[in-house]
Amino acid sequence: MIELPTRWWSMHIKFFLFVALSLGSLWAAPAQKTPAQKGPQDVEVLAENVTKQGTLIHAINNVVLYSPKYLITADEAYYDTASGDLELFGNITMLEGVSYASRTGHTKLNLNTDIGVSDPLFFYDEETNVWIKCENAILNPETYITQKSIVSSCNTQEPDWKIAFTSGEFNKESKWLHLYNPVFYANDVPVFYLPYFAFSTDTTRRTGLLQPEFGFGSSEGFYYMQPIFIAPAVDYDVELRPQMRTNRGEGMHGTYRFVDSAYSSGEITTGYFNEHSDYAEEENLKNSSHYGLHVMYDRSQLLSTKYNNLEDGLWLDINYLNDIDYYNTMSNETTSYDKLVTSRLNYYIKQDQDYYGVYARYDIDTYAKAQTGTNAKTLQELPTLHYHHFTSPLVLDNLLYSVDYKASNYTRQEDTTAFQNQVDVPFSLYFSLLQDYLHVSVSENIYASHIAYGNDDTNDNEGKYWRNYHKISLFTELAKPYDNFYHTMYIELNHIIPSKEDESGYFADFITLNTLAKSTSLTLKEFFYNGDGEKKISHKLVQFYYDDYDYKYGDLENDLKYHVNEQLSFGHNLSYSNEYSKISRNQISINYSDELYSTSLRYTYQDSVYKENTIYKITESTSTDEDYSYVTLYADTKYFTHYNIFTSVNYDVKADEFRSWAFGFKKTLKCWDYSIQYKDTTTPKSTSSSNGIDSVNKQGIMFMFNLYPMGSVSYDFSRESEQKVTN
Predict the structure, then answer these.
(1) Residues 6+ apart with CB under 8 A from 54
(2) Intra-chain end-to-end CA distance of the chain, in Å
(3) Alpha-carbon gap, residue 451 to 538, rounded angstroms
(4) Which residues face 662 on adjacent strands?
């Protein structure tokens, strides 16, 4: 048998050193160094001793053979220049192209037909690190047929995993390896047997089977999905993903991807999943089948290639589904809790000073559709027209203005619709004082909006609003170096004074207006750097004062972060309610990361009196109805070689319960990895069930085993308990 090297690359180095030494020995023995005459395949044979009788060449010691397809070294070789027959003996190394290499003790090969035999054989695919060791092999132009073989991608000496099989076939064109009667081993321990197994070693874009997905769940049973990739041309491809869930149902999803220009690409995804009747009845699903469609298209240059001084772009994201379970059946890991499924279309054109945009948005309310079977009352924006004139000088260089206009059409089949026009025009004057230490900005801002309603049973069929406000800003930027550190500071004082305002008619709850309150805000930002230019401390302080509200002072915001070094930092974000004389929000965080450890610990407390500062008018209380207190932790370590141990915790301090926590580890080696984790989570759940949105607690163990390059197998055993949300 062949003594296999521990590292294949070391064998490559030895091989090329051997070639160099062989050529050197030829120069040392000029009477025996002359290459044999080239045969039909333009073959050269070099060795320490070369003899020829008729068409038969006999080479001994440090044999090197060149052909258009092979580079071979051996101890001894017989080559017939007429027939192309080649027989090799002892320490044979054969390189075939740039991808395949083999080692053997004895080989017969016809260089004209590429047909032969080897015994024994060690074959290696450099792109995927997959190797095959067998007692004998039949060599063909496109395939290797092996007997009594072992395959793996681990080290050749005592591999972590291997597959032993009685016979197999490797296709060098399709790069598929077919195994018959394979037995899977973990080290030397047999794990399981299959009558047949096949996998691809191809990493290029080509038609074939992709890595399958396996899984097992307590409610859905065994899960299997086998993606099929079809690539007929360089500018488009198709991926089909048939799947089965033994306790739930079967379905298929497919994606068509394309590139139609140098500036654009897109994809179309659709699918269908059919539930088993007993599963649909047990889960009280509203629909026994789920289907949908997703269209995405992105083009950066639609008209700008034809017109100078023009930039434009188109983005299309269209989604349709009959219920949310269409998303939840796309794969074993997909879970959607979103109430709204949104489709968007955006297109813009931009020139030097002007911007034009067209936007459209269509929402599907999956919860309302599950309850009522209709989406007729969901509000849509079809379309919104947008024009913006960028800031430009007006008469004076430091007198600037801009214009922003929007026209929005809010529509739906049932209930109130509206068409809203909005225009916002600010005029700003900039200048500096005190030798540029103090910068001043004075602006006059004009805003107007008109709303026309439809499908409204009331007599109020329109709303009108306009206002103007004055804004005065004072700001300064300071920087000073010290012996051991560098300090920068930015201070800004903003004062907003609403002036004229007029409001008439009706304003629906979905209409937004840029109404401002009279307010004054003071902002301080500062940074400290050490002598090496590394940021050590960042600090931000914000305080608002409101003239229009019963409480005059908004929550004081203080954000402080200290960078101990590149790995460790501490953060503290604090809000103090001046209205209630208490801390309204408090967040403390610690972050650490290096090559071996990564940790993030955060504590967040928010009181019900917390109010977010804003320059806009508040028509109702912005404070939350309840307070909460959470501790979140994530940590992992790579201290142990090849192992990554991780944990995460989300603890509700007020309720004294864990919202979620997980613990696990992952072992990664050159040729395989596996992970085990335990998860306990409580999340909202949105399905097509007539039960609506439920709270779900899921506890389970997930095991994933991945062999390179064959694919992965996962086992997910979980237990779910649902709690109906009541109003």
Answers:
(1) none
(2) 76
(3) 45
(4) 648, 679
- Block means of pLDDT (10 residues each) for the chain, 727 residues, are 40 41 35 38 87 92 90 94 92 85 92 91 84 92 91 86 92 86 87 83 77 72 88 93 93 95 94 92 86 94 83 94 86 67 94 94 86 86 96 91 96 92 95 91 94 77 91 94 92 93 88 89 95 91 90 93 93 93 94 92 91 80 69 91 88 83 84 81 57 58 74 60 46
What letter would DSSP give residue 35? P
Rounded to an integer, what is the distance from CA 270 to the centroid of its chain? 21
The answer for residues whose C-beta is within 8 angstroms of residue 15's C-beta and 6 or more apart is 73, 93, 95
**How confident is the model at residue 532, as a pLDDT?**
85
How many Cβ atoms are within 10 Å of 195's Cβ, its own excluded? 8
Q: 542 and 490 in contact (C-beta within 8 Å)?
A: no
Q: Torsions phi, psi of 312, nearest 5? A: -145, 165
DSSP 31: G
Give me the DSSP letters along 81-131: TTT-EEEEEEEEEEEETTTEEEEEEEEEEETTTTEEEESSEEEEETTTTEE
At residue 331, the pLDDT reads 79
State the number of CA atoms in the 13 A half-sphere of 532 facing the CB.
Answer: 4
CA distance 288 to 598: 45
Whole-angstrom distance, CA of residue 389 vs CA of residue 356:
9
Q: What is the pLDDT of residue 697?
A: 63
- Enumerate the β-bridge partners of residue 1: none
Local structure of residue 689 (DSSP, 8 states): B
Burial of 726 (0-12, 13-18, 19+ CB in 10 A): exposed
Nearest residue to 207 via CA among 243, 174, 242: 174
Judge residue 525's burial from the number of C-beta atoms within 10 Å of its C-beta, 0-12 exposed, 13-18 middle, 19 or more buried: middle
The torsion defined by the Cα of 498, 502, 506 and 511, in degrees rounded to 10, comes to: -40
Q: Residue 487: left if φ>0, alpha if ψ -120 to 50, beta else—which one?
A: beta
What residue type is assigned to position 508 of the chain? A
Decide: helix, strand or coil at residue 13. Answer: helix
Helix (H) or strand (E) holding 149, with range, is strand 143-152
Task: Write the DSSP assignment of 194-234 as a string of letters.
Answer: -SEEEEE---SS-SEE---EEEEETTTEEEEE--EEEEEET
Dmax over CA atoms of the chain, in Å, equals 114
Q: Copy the structure tokens of residue 624.
A: 């939350």
Neighbours of 548 (CB within 10 A): 12
In the prediction, which pLDDT does 31 show? 29
The CA distance from 164 to 167, in Å, is 9
Q: How far is it, in rounded angstroms, from Cα 256 to Cα 274?
A: 22
The predicted pLDDT at position 88 comes to 94
DSSP 558-616: EEEEEESSSSEEEEEEEEEETTTTEEEEEEEEEEEE-SSEEEEEEEEEE-TT-----SB
Cα–Cα distance between 280 and 288 in angstroms, integer? 6
